[in-house]
Structures are given as structure tokens and as C-alpha cells.
């Protein structure tokens, strides 16, 4: 939690709400907050002011941009009915992305095609409307080359949707330079916006205004109207990214998100995301080296690519047995990682492929490294605790093997 | 703002987030919070535990339930293609409701039909799929008889969607007794959840589980999955209302909403919503009587019905000129109401109809009476201030005639 957050949240609650009441929608800028926080997030992802809004959840924003991409693809189809009947994504993409895409495919009579990372290039054919990828994989920490993948998609006339959940604030992102089409991301990971913080959405300005498609984005709520306080019964979308707003936003949580984004922007005079990236790679390099040196012989594998260009800001270890309990034992020692279960349904048919495919079935221990405030001594201490958990066998105790509702 | 809110919000931020970090998803019940707060809201609207979730915005929830209603109507259409091609709503319904319905109609090849209140009964024909109404009109304060209107819709095989934005916590609502089909509502009006508090959604249990319609609710995010932490690539909806969740929710704002709902539930031993309704009617009766007695001769009209059964917990006055400035002058005196512009586009063709139709074109001064904490002396004082504003002519000063972004 950023140090500034408790006081700022208290100010919104006690002063702006408790004393100034609904006047704060104007006086304290509540109504403009999604755009104001969006403009700040834009600086972290290679977007311009007025191109991002902080609003809703990642899943809801994904529904908006996937709908828009599908509607644009249909409207721009040459000569009659649309022949692009597929959305391509990664089988190990974060599930909510796949669920939202599946729902939209069912509705539009399209097909969701799930492939392994190394199969993406071959899957970009003329019958594909949209390529939807998460920039940094939640399960492996592997990162796509956004510009190269986008160029390959565009060469086939395919639009791209990028989920930045594990990259905004974690790695340098340059959406405009990569010529991406749409992006969404969450506020509660590397942006430190607090539990369930509002998410964000970006649309390349070339797609933002389509007078021929007033309902391109079907969550056409009043905050996306060109003049919401005229209260007219007919919908006329606002220009630019504002049409990607829908309903009234949770102001207290948005204020907390702004504090998190501000901490990242405070690093701009010191080199910003480029400097943070250097530190991030040094942290994850050190973690990998120390785990391999000090925890050898315990059956740990590495799911995250060693190549810098393919790595996000997390390191995922694999283990055949006990991953869940090891994470619980580490949490009890103050080292808070995530456990992600291996999923037999994403197991590849061929078990002899490259490592990125094999990790699907194995349980994962995930360690995130927020370069803004995680230090090298934290890395050393985390590995030391992991070593002690493994060597002592304490993870086999019953209390570490009890499952929670949320793991 | 409820007295309990600042301390509870500070606890979530400083203790649960700042100290206990992601462990709070289990330990402090963050993950279950939409259901927990939903169960509490259920007690205010005639629903049972497990039938309501507090989540997303009213507009997003409306998209979910309208989609579900349209998908159910299509699936249940006898013998081939659906003949029900219309959604009926009120022309003066809150605009976001109309925008969302318009977007869905465009997508489904259906027609949104807007009528005046007195035309609803005649509009319920065999080609209508869904009747979507706001229980208490935001512009006039007029309240529909939910059970009677629902019965009339059902008699023609039409599903009902109710927006409770101006009724939850303001008037007694009994969704189950009225045999309503779907309902949504907001958390930031009479529920006192704070600025932009999360909204809620209810679905009649008879419609909640449809194994034949896994994407009945197309915002199929991971929080609506039967087992979100299994991270499987295929969507399987959770039973009951849980499938109406989509993405991760803003926990800080949800905690504030719970404080607001708790203040209403604290009135249960004293008679609950029935007792609050008696006080609400006494407050609005007094306000109407005092305005007519003390502010006569200033051209004020009454948009809100005098009949108790047709009145929500607000009183809307009309004025041909100066409504905006009068509201601003009142706010400067500490009486905080709303201005709502008359909209020429909702002007009826015939100007000689009953009063409920004529108010469409006139500017509105809206006064909300939260029976939980607004007292009779507040009503007296508000009318006294209104009288002074009108008699002094101070509302004509330039500073009260400057328009804000949000009015």
C-alpha cells in the first residue's frame, strides 16, 4: 500500500463525501476522475492523454473492446458477409479473458481458437477477426513481443486486443509504437491501486470514433454519452475513449488507484519504466540464480523464460508435488507468493514439446517482483525462506495443506 | 455519510490491505463480499439470501439482466423464430436504462418502444419480449405498482426488468411477492454507500439457472464461474445469482456500501422499511403542503403524484424559468437538491394530457427525503430557505447561473 493512500482515502470519505456531499462531483473532480487517472496510466503504457479511462473491471473492459473489435471487423469486411469467423487466443491465457471471448463468440456465431504460444504465428489466417493475448502470461511470466506479434496480425488484416494485467507498471509498454489496436489492464497488481481497484481501457485513436458504429461498444451507459447531463433518451457516443465509460464509478476505490499510479509516476525523473525494468530484470535474474544455487535437489523447475526479452516481472517455479503447501508455508513466514494449480485440461497432447507448453500441467509457485519497492535483500530473504521450508519439510504439516476458498 | 463508514474504510485500507495484504481475500472475506452485501440488500427488497449480489454499476447490471431476459424470451419462444421483437420502456425512464436497452435491441435486431406511463398497459402485446421500468421515476418521483404491472406483463407472456435506483432503501419493495423477473439498483442513493458505490442485481430464482443457456448473461467473467480458482479455460456458470458476477470488485467501495446498508438494517427492530415508509410519506406530505402554503405565487408546480401509492420518497417541483439557479442558490444555503433540465425531446405530442405527461418539458427541482435521517425540522427549514430564495430574487445573481460540467 502506498504511504499516501490512507490519508487520501480518508479525505475523500470524510471531507469530500461527508462534508461536501454531491457537490464534489464538480468541486472535487469526481466526475472527471476516470479520465484523470486514465491520463496518468497512459504515461506508463505508451498512450497519450485522452486515450485511457480508469473504469469498471478488466473483464467488463475486455467485453467492451472485444465487442468493438468484432464489430469493426464485421463493418470493414469487404463485399458482403463477414468471412473472418475466428478469435485466436492462448490456451493458457487468464481464464476470464477466455470466458468473455467465448461468450462473445457464441453470440456472434464465431469460434474461439486456443493455441500454444509457438502456434500463434501459424494461426493468423485470413479467417481470423481478432487476436487476443495477455502481454505477460499469468501462469509462466512469459512475455510476448507486442510490436512483432501485432505486425504479424496486421499483415493478415487481424485486429489485436492486449491484456496488460501483468505488464502495466511492471514492464515498459508502448502501445502506440507497437501499433496495437485495443488494450485493457487491471489496477490492483503492479499499479498498487488496492483490492479490486478499477481497471483501465485504451483504444487506438484510429478506432475510437466510428460514426457508422454508434453501438460499437455495446455497454452504452450514460457516462459514455456525449452529454450525459442533457438526459436525452437517445444514445450519442462521446468522442474518443470517453465512450468506453458505462455507469457511475466507485470514487473511493478510484482515489486509491490514483495514489498507486502516482507512486509509479514519481519514478519518472529517475528514468521511469526503463529504469524500473532494469531493476526488475536484475531482481528476477537474482531470484532465478539463487533458487537454482540454494534450493537445488528439491524438484523445482523454471516456468519463466530465461531470455530477458521474453520475461515479465515475475518468476514462476514448477513442482510436481506440494506447491500449494509450500506457498502456504512461505506466507506464514512472510513471503507472499501465489499458487496456481496445474490444469490437466490445458495439458498438451504431445509431452515432448518445448518447456513453455509442458508447464501447463504442473503446479506453479508464482513470485511477483514489483521493482518500485522490492529490493535485492528481499530476494535473498525470500530464497532463504524457501530453502528452509523445503529442507525442513514443514510444508507437509496439515495446516499448510488446508484449502481456502481463494488460493 | 454513515458514522461507521470512515473507521470501517480505514480498517480495510490500513489493516486488511496494508498489513494483511492478499491474505484478506480469504481471511477478511473480500471474495465473498459481493454476496455478503447482496444478502443484506436482499432484506430491503423482498428477496432471499443468495439471490442478490452487490457488484459493478447499475448500467452494467442492466446489460446483464436485459440480455438474460432477451435470451430467455428467445429460447422459450414456441415453434421456431422469436416473434417477440420489442422491448417496452417509459420515455422518461432514466437515460442510461434506455441507452443500454437501445444497444441490446440493435444487436438482437429488436425494437425499443418508448411510451408514456398511461400507455404502458396498452403497449403490452404479444410481440413484446421485455418490459423494463424504473420503479420510481427519477424525474417525477412517480411510483409504479410493481405487482400489478408485473401481472399485466405476465398475462401477455412478457418478462419484467425493474430498476430500483430510487426505491431500494426509500420505499418498501417486495420483488418476490410482486413476482418480478429481474431487478437492478444502485448503492449510492438511499443505500448511502458513498460516491459511485457498487450497484446490485437480483434474478428471480426461477430464471437463475438455465443449463440450456450457459451464456444467458454474456458478461461471463471469472467471478461468475462455478470454480474460478480452478482456472479452467472453459466457462461453466456458477449456480444462482453468482453467475451475475463478472470481474474483481472494488473492495474499499464495497466495504463503504456495506456500512450504508447496515444503517438501514438497524431500523428493522423498529419496523424496518414499513416504518420508514410511514415517515417518508409524512415528510413528503409536509413538504408539498408547506411549499404550496408558503411559496405560493412563484410559479412552482408539482410533478410528483399526490396519491401515496404512486409516490416514491422524493418531491419534484416544476418551474418554467430559473430552476437551475434556484437549486444553486439553495445549495449555497445548505439545502442540497438536484436540478433536472426539461427535455424537449420527451415533450409529448399532445399538450393537453394528464399532468404526468406534461412535466417532461419543464425544468425540475428535485428534493429527496431519506426517511432514515431526514427530520421534519429539515423539511420546515428547506421550505423556509426556498421561500427566501424566491422572495429575495437572489437566484438571479450571475454566480447561481453558471453551469457546471455536472449539474
What does this structure look like?
- The structure is a homodimer of 407-residue chains.
- The longest helix of chain A has 23 residues, at 272-294.
- Chain A has helices at residues 5-17, 24-27, 33-42, 58-75, 95-108, 120-123, 146-155, 205-208, 251-265, 272-294, 323-332, 355-358, 376-392; strands at 52-54, 86-90, 111-115, 128-134, 159-163, 182-185, 200-203, 301-302, 314-319, 338-340, 363-368.
- In chain A, the strands form 2 sheets. A 7-stranded mixed beta sheet of chain A has the order 1-7-6-5-4-2-3, with helices on both faces. In chain A, strands 8-9-11-10 form a 4-stranded antiparallel beta sheet, covered by helices on one side.
- In chain A, helix 1 (5-17) runs antiparallel to helix 9 (251-265) and helix 4 (58-75) packs parallel to helix 5 (95-108).
- Chain A folds into 2 domains: 5-265, 3-Layer(aba) Sandwich (Aspartate Aminotransferase, domain 2); 270-400, Alpha-Beta Complex (Aspartate Aminotransferase, domain 1), CATH 3.90.1150.
- The first copy, chain A, is α/β, with parallel strands linked by helices and 407 residues long.
Amino acid at each position: 500500500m502506498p504511504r499516501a493512500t490512507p490519508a487520501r482515502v480518508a479525505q475523500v470519505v470524510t471531507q469530500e463525501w461527508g462534508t461536501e456531499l454531491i457537490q464534489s462531483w464538480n468541486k472535487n473532480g469526481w466526475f472527471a476522475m476516470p479520465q484523470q487517472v486514465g491520463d496518468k496510466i497512459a504515461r506508463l503504457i505508451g498512450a497519450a492523454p485522452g486515450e485511457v479511462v480508469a473504469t469498471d473491471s478488466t473483464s467488463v473492459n475486455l467485453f467492451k473492446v472485444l465487442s468493438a473489435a468484432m464489430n469493426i471487423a464485421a463493418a470493414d469486411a469487404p463485399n458482403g458477409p463477414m468471412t473472418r469467423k475466428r478469435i485466436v487466443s492462448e490456451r493458457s491465457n487468464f481464464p476470464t479473458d477466455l470466458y468473455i471471448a467465448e461468450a462473445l463468440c457464441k453470440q456472434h456465431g464465431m469460434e474461439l481458437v486456443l493455441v500454444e504460444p509457438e502456434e500463434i504465428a501459424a494461426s493468423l489466417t485470413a479467417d481470423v477477426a481478432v487476436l487476443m493475448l495477455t502481454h505477460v502470461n499469468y501462469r509462466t511470466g512469459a512475455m510476448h513481443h507486442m510490436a512483432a506479434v501485432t505486425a504479424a496480425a496486421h499483415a493478415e488484416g487481424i485486429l489485436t486486443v492486449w491484456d496488460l494485467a501483468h505488464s502495466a507498471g511492471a514492464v515498459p509498454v508502448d502501445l502506440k509504437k507497437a501499433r496495437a489496436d485495443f488494450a485493457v489492464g487491471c489496477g490492483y497488481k503492479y499499479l498498487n491501486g488496492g483490492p479490486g481497484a478499477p481497471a483501465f481501457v485504451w483504444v487506438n485513436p484510429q478506432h475510437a470514433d466510428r460514426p457508422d458504429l454508434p453501438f460499437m461498444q455495446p455497454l452504452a451507459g450514460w457516462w459514455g454519452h456525449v452529454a450525459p447531463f442533457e438526459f436525452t433518451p437517445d444514445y450519442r457516443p462521446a468522442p474518443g475513449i470517453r465512450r468506453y465509460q458505462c455507469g457511475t464509478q466507485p470514487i473511493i476505490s478510484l482515489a486509491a488507484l490514483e495514489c498507486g499510479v502516482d507512486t509509479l509516476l514519481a519514478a519518472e525523473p529517475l528514468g521511469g519504466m526503463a529504469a524500473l525494468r532494469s531493476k526488475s530484470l536484475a531482481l528476477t535474474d537474482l531470484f532465478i540464480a539463487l533458487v537454482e544455487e540454494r534450493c537445488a535437489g528439491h524438484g523445482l523447475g523454471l516456468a519463466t523464460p530465461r531470455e530477458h526479452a521474453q520475461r515479465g516481472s515475475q518468476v514462476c517455479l514448477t513442482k510436481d508435488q506440494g506447491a500449494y503447501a509450500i506457498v502456504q508455508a512461505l506466507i506464514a513466514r512472510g513471503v507472499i507468493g501465489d499458487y496456481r494449480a496445474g490444469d490437466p485440461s490445458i495439458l498438451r497432447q504431445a509431452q515432448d514439446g518445448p518447456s513453455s507448453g509442458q508447464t501447463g500441467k504442473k503446479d506453479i509457485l508464482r513470485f511477483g517482483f514489483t521493482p518500485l519497492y522490492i529490493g535485492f535483500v528481499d530476494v535473498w530473504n525470500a530464497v532463504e525462506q524457501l530453502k528452509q521450508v523445503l529442507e525442513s519439510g514443514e510444508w507437509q504439516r496439515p495446516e499448510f495443506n488446508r484449502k481456502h476458498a481463494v488460493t
